[in-house]
Task: structure prediction
Amino acid sequence: MARPIEQALTPAVFADEDFGFGLSSYSKTLVMKDCLRIALAYRDIDMIDEAARDVVSKCAARASDIVAATPTDSFAWLVRAAASVRLLARDEFNAALRQSQLTGPNEQWIAHFRVNLAETYFAQLSAETIKSEAADLKLLASSERGVKLIAQRYVSNPDFRARITAIVETMPPDRQIAFLGNVKKSMGKR
Result:
């Protein structure tokens, strides 16, 4: 049973939680949303604590249970990737992140989470996962909503800007113009 995330994210709050879920995809998604927030909420120093690692490990196990039963669950693959990177399982992180992209290539809301996770842990990405992230970046760059999600990173991070620019340059001219217009519009609203 998932607990409200508004509670303090201390390992003790979730020590007895098994992150169980029901049969519906909705119940699985709720648990996976909680697990994603939990896995990403702890700071690196918190992950030294055995209790924090145990909580993140439980979330990794639940995500693994879900993808074992439903291999096309892109969001559960994402949660597995997030938990894996926090547990310093680099190969599992890369494999799960790529699998999330393969199973949900057009799910913009999940692509947004994948890009944020990939950019946060960019140094951990394999060459194959960087290629996979490029597909997500192209998806996000193709819509006004997607550009809103990446605009701040575009402006503030020169390395990211160079990567997204290279991707946008492969798109048709009308999409390139729309991308630049969406960036300007998005930045004007901030």
About this structure: The chain has ten helices and no strands. The two ends are 37 Å apart (CA to CA). Residues 1-106 form one domain. The first helix runs from residue 11 to 14.
